[in-house]
Backbone:
């Protein structure tokens, strides 16, 4: 019996494609894209001094566009292509061929076109997060060169190694549910490294760098938070129960981390800071990302408590005591909010990962021996599978070591190469005048660079002097 013509499968809806999964995947990708444009564009443009508003927002906007062109040109196939050039990288190729885009993706009941777009928004936000460490002094032309080079020679290697089914860390069983390693640890280390090579902001900007609009900053941060539903909810590539769990765990961890950071601010600085609370939100979102759909709710709360306190300590206390950390001008403190929180999340994933949830996420049959390698140390100790638990923790630590080394080396080489072509840092005149000198445009017709905030107790606590690290958002 044949189906009516209006119900029969067509080339636009082949038998292998699940319309619900595809719709959710496109929605999730759009949510992640909104995190960058307009989310981080607004956040960056409002959290800096008035004279840097246009330049900071524009760095994010440019990166989003440039990554997309590079991604469909060669980046996607380098990161996820099934033709391997090295054990850590695919073979470069264009991802715009109609036949390829309409075929089934390497995972999920989705077309390649959906997968290419979904993976693009993750690559784009990684570069935009790196920009957070460089705001207020990087030469815009140098940034234009940095984006395609870093995407090509750093991001694709991390993505292929950890996320591709053929990657060397992926085949060993590393758990990075949605980018704690590939995105956050990478951007934190790369941003800090690039900040070292670019050099610091102008002295007076390091001493006093108040946001030009805290309410707009909150709007950008809110888009970032809500967009994380797609960030973590889209990574099973299925509209599944595991995706639902990942979304709930994401927001539970973020809220717990925010409240933890807020309480520490009140206890030690006697000031309930909205900027500090936003930092806690970010570290919670970053920490849960590698674990979102493979840990239980109680573990998500525990991770929130730790992500709201450990990065708080490294940023508010340790940073001021470690000489080297003080020398690097990491404008938005991505080292603490992403490298520290991302590493913490990777380690806690190795401890709390539930083998049953892992089996759901990786779609492994219970009778298969393959799923046994995905087990957190806590469950290994409890179930008498201690060796498997320690093995998982070892792989998680190996992943951290690999990502750190990769980004230290590649980012340094890229910065040194760019320095041979154009200066990495803006001229003194451009540092003095900001947007008007660089772009011939200014964000606001009136209002100064935060003079009214200069003597407030809040700004003295949150680093208007020295490096301003404690006001970092992403």
Residues:
């Amino acid at each position: 019996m044949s189906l009516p013509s209006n119900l029969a499968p067509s080339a636009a809806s082949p038998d292998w494609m699940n319309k619900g999964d595809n719709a959710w995947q496109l929605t999730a990708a759009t949510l992640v894209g909104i995190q960058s444009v307009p989310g981080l564009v607004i956040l960056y443009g409002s959290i800096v001094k008035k004279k840097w508003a246009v330049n900071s927002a524009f760095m994010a906007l440019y990166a989003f566009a440039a990554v997309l062109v590079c991604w469909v040109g060669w980046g996607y196939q380098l990161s996820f292509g099934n033709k391997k050039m090295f054990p850590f990288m695919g073979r470069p190729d264009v991802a715009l061929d109609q036949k390829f885009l309409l075929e089934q993706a390497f995972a999920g009941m989705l077309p390649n076109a959906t997968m290419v777009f979904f993976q693009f928004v993750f690559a784009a936000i990684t570069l935009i997060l790196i920009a957070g460490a460089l705001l207020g002094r990087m030469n815009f032309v140098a940034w234009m060169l940095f984006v395609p080079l870093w995407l090509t020679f750093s991001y694709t290697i991390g993505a292929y190694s950890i996320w591709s089914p053929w990657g060397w860390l992926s085949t060993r069983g590393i758990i990075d549910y949605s980018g704690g390693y590939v995105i956050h640890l990478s951007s934190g280390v790369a941003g800090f490294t690039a900040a070292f090579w670019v050099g610091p902001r102008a002295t007076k900007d390091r001493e006093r760098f108040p946001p030009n609009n805290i309410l707009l900053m909150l709007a950008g941060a809110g888009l970032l938070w809500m967009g994380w539903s797609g960030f973590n909810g889209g990574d099973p590539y299925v509209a599944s129960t595991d995706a639902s769990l990942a979304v709930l765990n994401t927001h539970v961890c973020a809220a717990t981390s925010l409240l933890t950071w807020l309480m520490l601010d009140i206890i030690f600085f006697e000031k309930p800071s909205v900027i500090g609370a936003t930092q806690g939100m970010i570290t919670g979102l970053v920490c849960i990302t590698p674990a979102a759909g493979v840990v239980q709710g109680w573990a998500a709360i525990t991770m929130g408590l730790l992500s709201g306190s450990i990065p708080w300590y490294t940023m508010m206390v340790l940073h001021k005591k470690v000489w080297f950390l003080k020398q690097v001008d990491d404008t938005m403190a991505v080292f603490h909010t992403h490298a520290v929180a991302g590493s913490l999340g990777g380690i806690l994933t190795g401890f709390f990962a539930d083998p049953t949830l892992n089996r759901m996420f990786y779609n492994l049959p219970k009778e298969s021996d393959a799923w046994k390698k995905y087990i957190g140390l806590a469950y290994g100790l409890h179930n008498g599978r201690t060796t498997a638990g320690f093995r998982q923790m070892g792989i998680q630590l190996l992943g951290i070591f690999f990502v750190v080394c990769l980004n230290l080396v590649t980012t340094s080489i890229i910065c040194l190469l760019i320095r041979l072509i154009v200066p990495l840092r803006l001229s003194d005149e451009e540092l003095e005048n900001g947007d008007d000198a660089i772009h011939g445009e200014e964000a606001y017709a009136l209002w100064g660079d935060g003079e009214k905030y200069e003597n407030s107790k809040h700004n003295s606590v949150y680093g208007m002097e020295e490096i301003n690290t404690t006001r970092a958002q992403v």
